[in-house]
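Tokens as discussed.
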């Protein structure tokens, strides 16, 4: 989502921009692990520079990373699907009352919370 917002040529840029307009009334939080992943995916200095400005502009605050034990428990449960750390953190944090803004299809079709329920998404129709 952050990468899509920052890169106008990204295939999800227009959608992310529209969805942000819908979500701007909510309190938005970002996990440090999500920021690390976005930083990694933004390869060029020119791509990375606007990240802090974007977060300030949309008034995003830091989210607290979930307990490692629960993240590892989830990773072990879904090991056959080879999830990454960020996906696990997002699913575990969604075990509370948090909604996840992602376009990764696994959040709708594969990943489930530790109790087996669906991951609540911040926008509909993850792809």
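Sequence:
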């Amino acid at each position: 989502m952050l990468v899509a917002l920052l890169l106008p040529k990204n295939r999800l840029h227009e959608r992310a921009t529209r969805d942000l307009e819908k979500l701007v009334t909510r309190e938005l939080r970002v996990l440090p692990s999500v920021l690390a992943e976005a930083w990694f995916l933004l390869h060029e200095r020119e791509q990375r520079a606007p990240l802090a400005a974007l977060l300030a502009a949309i008034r995003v605050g830091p989210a607290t990373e979930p307990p490692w034990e629960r993240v590892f428990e989830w990773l072990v449960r879904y090991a056959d699907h080879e999830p990454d750390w960020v996906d696990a953190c997002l699913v575990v944090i969604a075990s509370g009352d948090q909604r996840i803004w992602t376009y990764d299809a696994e959040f709708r079709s594969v990943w489930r919370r530790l109790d087996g329920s669906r991951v609540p998404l911040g926008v509909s129709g993850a792809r």
